[in-house]
Structures are given as C-alpha cells and as structure tokens.
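agent: user wants the full assembly modeled, not chains individually. Plan: 1) parse entity lines 2) check alphabet per entity 3) run joint structure prediction 4) return tokens. Steps 1-2 passed, two entities, 229 residues total. Proceeding.
--- entities ---
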Amino acid sequence: SQQGEEDPQALSIQEGENATMNCSYKTSINNLQWYRQNSGRGLVHLILIRSNEREKHSGRLRVTLDTSKKSSSLLITASRAADTASYFCAPRRGGGATNKLIFGTGTLLAVQP
Amino acid sequence: DGGITQSPKYLFRKEGQNVTLSCEQNLNHDAMYWYRQDPGQGLRLIYYSQIVNDFQKGDIAEGYSVSREKKESFPLTVTSAQKNPTAFYLCASSMWTGQSGANVLTFGAGSRLTVL
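--- prediction returned ---
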C-alpha cells in the first residue's frame, strides 16, 4: 500500500515542549509529505522531503527520512497551543505512479497552554 | 487570491436523494481529487482526475460519481446508492509535475454532508 501510517495516534504535550510524530510506509517513494489539519478544516501542506534527502527544516519543523527503514519523523520544536491539530504523512510513490496521494489516520496533537 | 472553493459548507440530505458537492479551483492545476473523512479517521480517496474528461476510481468510489468537463471544476455527486454518506468531504488539486514530481496537494475547506 502507498499509505503512510502515523504513530502515535494521539499525543498530548505542554506548551514549549517538542512534539515528535512518526510515519511508516511500505513501498519505495519519490518523496514524502506532511500535512496539517485543524479541526473541521481542509489539510494544509507543511513540508516535503525527497527520497534523496535525509533531513529538512522549515521554521520550527524538522523532518527526517530513513528510506532503508521506510520511515519518517516530524518534529515540532517549542510547541504552541496553535499547533493543536491532526498531522498526516503522505508518501508519494516513485516510478510511473499516478498523481494520487493516500493519507493515513494521522496523529492528533494536543498542546496544552 | 488563488485557491479551491468548495460549496456548500454544510448540506443536509434526506435518504434516497442525490446531492452534488461543488469544487472549483483557480490555481490552473491539472489534477483534482475527492476524499472522504469520517470522524476520528483518515482520508479515503473517492475519485481523482489528472486531466479534463478523464477520471479514475479511488478506494471507495461505489455510490459516488464525478465529471471533469472543465479544468477548473470537479463536482462530486453522492448518489442514493451510497449506504453511509454522512461524512466530511474534501476536494484537492495539484499541478502535474511529471511522474517524479512533487505533487503537492492544495485542499479546499471541506463540505460536511449529513443524511437525515
């Protein structure tokens, strides 16, 4: 399956702490993307990491990719209450695949003020 | 401003009725998608279209139909054959950047359908 599986399903932390979410997948990929969804809203693209990259940063976000383990992690540093949302990973298969992205069930992050 | 517009935001339907959800984008994106999300669950792909006048079934296409007559528009019809249509429906689009491209999705704000 092209679907990514996020872990943990839910995470509760205090404001200022770091939050780490993990994603595992099964097929070879061209890139892996992370999205965020606030309750009752659409998803918003956060960051993309290509298969030949190992780490990428964007503001308070840090993404790592280990293609040998078929896993990725998203780290949010110095979390804020506004980071409360669901986070989804979406692996994009390589080699002639279609455009479609398959999303998992996500990690629900709650940041307590 | 460029983006995706879904309408209506909330929709109520009686059992046995068909309903059409609208999705319009002005991003000049080639591909468009429909996902369904149930409470506490992830997104499941219903249909997607990579070019005008062509679309493909996703994982849960039964009871749904789509059309892609214009690049900007990808309406979804929830038919009476869909047994459990109450859900949050999300439309998305992306630029076709080749088979090795990024394929980053832009999502609409969603339409919540409730069957009474």
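agent: reporting back. The interface with chain B takes residues 30-31, 33, 35, 40-45, 48, 88, 90, 92, 94-106 of chain A (CB under 8 Å). The radius of gyration of chain A is 14 Å.
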